[in-house]
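Interim report to the steering committee. The following record documents the input for Ubiquinone biosynthesis O-methyltransferase (231 residues).
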Amino acid sequence: MNADPAELQKFSDLAHRWWDPESEFKPLHQINPLRLDWIDGAAQIAGKKVVDIGCGGGILAESMAARGAQVTGVDLSEKALGVARLHLYESGQTVDYRHISAEDIARECPGSFDVVTCMEMLEHVPDPASTIRACAALVKPGGHVFFSTLNRNLKSYLMAVVGAEYVLKMLPMGTHEYAKFIKPSELARYVREAGLDVEELIGMSYNPISKVYSLGRDTDVNYLMRTTRHG
């Protein structure tokens, strides 16, 4: 199983706070509209079959369903999935949430999805290349696979770990393990080895003064990568 029990426990313990926009998950709520617009702008998700790998409490999965996508959400935290399913009663959206690993659903449903999203997950698994191979296997030829993760350098350590967790207290201490951060060149290599083509690399920045996130050219800390499977 390509999962770290300590990482799963960390997110399970916080699961009940997933949909509180002022909780530890506040950054996810703030960046979700940016992620959603970027994904939808590239893939036009309305009417498409989409799978969100590492969906957690369902913030992105549910918002994609609201845009008209047919969404499956996959995670290994039962507690997070329980929260995600419960929130559907509040929102009225439809998402098929499944307690299964990326690798197992890839074996079960190869080439079944128009779009695959894997956001803020790669830095939390022992073998990110395995997750990426699973994402590549899940998408139809010509389909889109979207990733987001954290770069590995001094700036990202200072901002994502020291700044966000210890100074600004935006995230719980221990949320991120610096050694698991992935450089864009490393992600691009994993992606190509999995049979995907890199189409776009874009950065996500946070302004601590205005407290606003934005997409742009700065990939030093958070970044997103859009890929497609060979047709």
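The mean pLDDT is 92. The committee is asked to note this result when reviewing the revised timeline.
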